[in-house]
Design goal:
This protein is an alpha+beta fold. The protein is 47% helix and 19% strand. The chain has 2 domains: 140 residues, Sandwich (Jelly Rolls), CATH 2.60.120; 100 residues, Orthogonal Bundle (Arc Repressor Mutant, subunit A).
């Protein structure tokens, strides 16, 4: 009897848990409501216009908006827009404080949302959906919660991401963002918190470290993927960043 009661209580608890991923679209009519769980909205295509305490604005692909439990919000979006929506009764620790309501998401999370959309549109598999939810929460926990940046700076960030293995100059990046070099240096430092080249170097080094530990690429190929044609220059920079050589990092 005690075992049956415990099992029943456990099942009831699972039913009360709200942990769900879905793909949604919204009407162009302005809607308002609140819910007794947290909700994260991550645009895939198009933007959502949203208004809630502390935030009024548009949230676009590459961004996330957090609607906290019980928070009344008003929203509308074009009919063709699509979003990954996370309904959850808990939040990763980095989202529990008074951080930005809307924030930029990093490349791994943005790419993962594409998989979530494809999988949810293909089949119903509760075990896989739970695994996807757990993975998405781990990715959210990794977000730096940087405030959203100017659209022109977003274009520069995308250009860096897409051309990381190439030689990047301030002139080319400024052109990608429709900015002068002076405007780019000023806006980037203000909104990203690093100079353009500090950011490029950090992202390149993080990519190189990941490739060294997760692939069997040669150090030369890793250097090239990280935008370094000169292996010696790459090794010096890597060692300065991490305190050990590329070969030792590989272990």
């Amino acid at each position: 009897m005690e075992l049956a009661a415990a099992a029943g209580a456990s099942n009831q608890l699972r039913e009360l848990m709200i942990r769900q991923l879905s793909i949604r679209s919204y009407s162009r009519s302005r809607c308002s409501h609140a819910h007794d769980y947290h909700q994260l909205v991550l645009p895939l295509i198009g933007v959502i216009e949203i208004e809630l305490e502390g935030f009024v604005g548009r949230v676009a692909p590459g961004e996330c908006v957090l609607i906290r439990q019980g928070q009344v919000h008003h929203f509308l979006a074009a009919r063709e827009a699509r979003f990954v929506v996370v309904d959850t009764d808990f939040l990763p620790e980095n989202l529990r404080g008074a951080e930005p309501t809307a924030f930029a998401v990093n490349q791994p999370l943005a790419r993962y949302l594409e998989f979530v959309e494809a999988q949810l549109g293909t089949q119903v598999n509760q075990q896989l959906e739970q695994s996807m939810f757990d993975t998405l929460m781990l990715l959210l926990a990794e977000q730096r919660l940087a405030p959203r940046v100017d659209e022109r700076v977003q274009k520069v960030l995308r250009a860096i991401d897409e051309r990381l293995s190439e030689k990047l100059t301030l002139h080319e990046l400024a052109k990608a963002g429709c900015l002068s070099e002076t405007q780019l240096k000023k806006l980037f430092r203000e909104q990203v918190g690093e100079t353009v080249m500090q950011y490029v170097t950090r992202v390149r080094m993080e990519k190189a470290k990941a490739l060294l530990q997760h692939t069997d690429y040669s150090v030369q190929r890793v250097a090239e993927q990280a935008g370094y044609a000169d292996l010696s220059a790459f090794s010096r920079r890597f060692t300065a960043c991490f305190g050990l050589s590329p070969a030792r990092c590989r272990g």
